[in-house]
Design brief:
Layout (H helix, E strand, L loop, with lengths): L4 H48 L6 H27 L5 H18 L1 H16 L7 E4 L2 E8 L3 E6 L4 E5 H6 L3 E2 L6 E9 L5 H14 L10 E7 L4 E9 L4 H21 L44 H17 L11
Antiparallel strand pairs: 1-2, 1-5, 2-3, 3-4, 6-8, 7-8
Length: about 325
């Protein structure tokens, strides 16, 4: 009898479990029906949110919100189904358990959660949207997709850059297509002997005539620098639309036209130059700032005649040979 006691215990447990399952069968069926209802409700809410956010600028946000709504409704349905099957089950107990374990999960997936929250905030606040052209650090391109973890941009040379949303949300981002109009500018250098006002008129005439530039706001031509070789005039004009292709085409036509008009008007567009002065230190005027060629003479017409370095070296060699022939040790006597 004792050898069969464990088997009897197991059999009694199985019978008890089977009776319990039979007793819970109505509740299980009801729970399944309730969960299916929540499932269809979740799909309906997802479709509804997508339809309400079908606009181009908020379509990506609609996708994310639809997925979140669907997940939350299915989770709620699971809680309700468990409460029907197991009357002693309380959702508060599960929430408490998830709260304790959520701390550990939060530390383990901190970066993922941070990018997720940043992605949600980017989608809600919309500092930029899909098809915007942005500049982030050394990356520049068109926004292709805004996901909950990262944002994908397509650079102008055909590459794809994936940037974590946390970096985009916490750093500065330049959005070139945020407004309908965009201002371009370029510095143009003219010679110091040229007429500044005439150069400004040429630049403004070009900017007013080209169809790529806008009349309102009006274009400008401003002197911004007195550089080493040039007087720099900054040409500024507005374009629309503000995309990079339009900006490059407008700049090409503006600079080409300005260059041609400057040449026709006889205005110099000099390149950087340097003036190098050689001093042979053998002239009688050496040290006299009012007489030497490297200085500024006190009176006009009083400049010493220019001399070539080769002539000075030849005269210096002849002077040394003459002094050595006469028995003198110092061959560096200045000549007259």
């Amino acid at each position: 009898m004792n050898s069969f006691t464990p088997m009897q215990t197991v059999w009694q447990q199985l019978i008890s479990m089977f009776k319990g399952a039979i007793a819970l069968l109505p509740n299980i069926l009801i729970a399944i029906v309730v969960f299916i209802i929540f499932w269809f409700l979740a799909k309906f809410s997802r479709r509804l949110i997508k339809n309400l956010t079908r606009r181009k600028r908020s379509s990506n946000l609609g996708i994310v919100l639809a997925r979140l709504a669907q997940g939350l409704i299915i989770l709620l349905g699971a809680f309700v189904a468990l409460a029907i099957i197991i009357p002693s089950f309380r959702p508060g107990d599960l929430v408490q358990l998830l709260g304790v374990s959520g701390v550990a999960v939060g530390f383990a997936f901190r970066d993922i959660l941070q990018n997720f929250l940043a992605g949600i905030l980017i989608l809600i606040t919309e500092p930029f949207v899909i098809d915007d052209q942005i500049v982030f650090k050394e990356f520049e391109g068109t926004v292709e997709q805004i996901q909950t973890r990262a944002t994908k941009i397509r650079t102008y040379d055909g590459s794809r850059i994936v940037i974590p949303n946390a970096e985009l949300f916490t750093n500065s981002v330049k959005v070139n297509t945020a407004f309908e109009k965009r201002r371009l500018e370029y510095d143009i250098g003219i010679g110091y002997g040229d007429d500044i006002e005439a150069a400004k008129r040429v630049i403004l005439d070009v900017l007013h005539e080209l169809p790529e530039t806008l009349a309102d706001p009006a274009p400008e031509a401003l002197v911004v620098d007195l550089a080493a070789s040039t007087i720099n005039i900054r040409a500024r004009w507005w374009i629309t639309p503000p995309r990079r292709t339009d900006a490059m085409n407008a700049q090409d036509k503006v600079l080409t036209a300005i260059n041609n008009r400057m040449i026709e008007a006889g205005i110099d567009l000099p390149f950087p130059t340097q003036q190098i002065l050689f001093h042979d230190q053998t002239e009688s005027t050496d040290g006299d700032r009012t007489r030497q060629r490297e200085g500024w003479p006190a009176a006009k017409g009083d400049n010493p005649e220019p001399r070539r370095i080769s002539d000075s070296l030849r005269q210096l060699a002849e002077s040394r040979n003459s002094n050595q022939g006469n028995g003198h040790s110092n061959g560096n006597q200045p000549h007259t």
